[in-house]
Amino acid sequence: MLIVEGIQTLYGNIKALKGVDLDVRPGTIVSILGVNGAGKTTLLKTIAGLLKPKIGKIEFLGENITTLKPHQIVHKGIALVPEGRAILAKMTVLENLEMGAYHRTDSEVKDDIEKELVRFPWLRDRQNQPGGSLSGGEQQMLAISRALLARPRLLLLDEPSLGLAPLVVNEIFRTIKRINKAGTTILLVEQNVKQALNISHFSYVLETGRIILKGLSEELIHEPKIKEAFLGQKV
């Protein structure tokens, strides 16, 4: 579904990504793991078109999307839930949802909004509240729902559990699994390595802009480097 080949992305003269290769298969959850500054967010922004690679190629559903603009990439079927959620604080919950479908001209937008209100019933009760009045967990759910209103084939999630309470984190990951089972492929950047490995099918480990490890998530969770670097287990 998504193939990233030899991507190099720069911030000024600094190489944030140094030749990254990635393969996301349809129907899967793929995790990108790594410490702060490894290049995880840069990778998602490059796929979403917010940053342009200096070298390399990105293919989605067999089409080269490397040079497309962000709104064109959304049209192709990729939606990003950014780190920090980027909720439109002064707009209502309902208006935030509607913004997720800004590019759509079909007659099913209202039906899809209703599906999100069913998925997260508390959204219905708060649909006329400003997005900025929601708790962090509620804003994260809203951000995910807003992205789903674009009807993506591939959903990019950047640190969805960041700064949230443990119970909320568990609900976020249950939600991600349900979205995937409903047919949406997911590329997940996450510092909660244990949770990410538990719900994903395949994982990549980024270190200073390079992939240093990859494999089936159920196998990587037993990898000594993963245990020591991310799970706090001495090997």
Question: Can you walk through the features of this model?
Answer:
This protein has 235 residues and is an alpha/beta fold. The chain has a single domain, classed as 3-Layer(aba) Sandwich (Rossmann fold), CATH 3.40.50.300. 36% of the residues lie in helices and 26% in strands. It contains ten helices and ten strands. The strands form two sheets. Strands 6-7-8-3-9-10 form a six-stranded mixed sheet, sandwiched between helices. The protein has a four-stranded antiparallel sheet with strand order 2-1-4-5, with helices on one face. Helix 3 packs parallel to helix 6 (136-148). The termini are far apart. The mean pLDDT is 92.
Describe the structure using short key phrases:
235 residues, four-stranded antiparallel sheet, single chain, globular, alpha/beta, Rossmann fold, six-stranded mixed sheet, 10 helices
Short account of what is shown:
This protein has 235 residues and is α/β, with parallel strands linked by helices. It contains 10 helices and 10 strands. A hairpin with a 2-residue loop joins strand 1 (2-11) and strand 2.
Overall structural domain count? 1
Query: What are the secondary-structure elements, in order, as H or E?
Result: EEEHEEHEHHHHEHEHEEHH
Tell me the CATH architecture: 3-Layer(aba) Sandwich
Strand coverage percent? 25-35%
Number of alpha- plus pi-helical segments:
10
Model regions low in confidence, pLDDT < 50 over at least 5 residues: none
Strand order of the largest sheet: 6-7-8-3-9-10
State the total count of DSSP E strands.
Answer: 10
**Biggest β-sheet, characterized?**
6 strands, mixed
Give the full name of the CATH homologous superfamily.
Answer: P-loop containing nucleotide triphosphate hydrolases
Q: Residue-averaged pLDDT, rounded?
A: 92
Radius of gyration: 17 Å
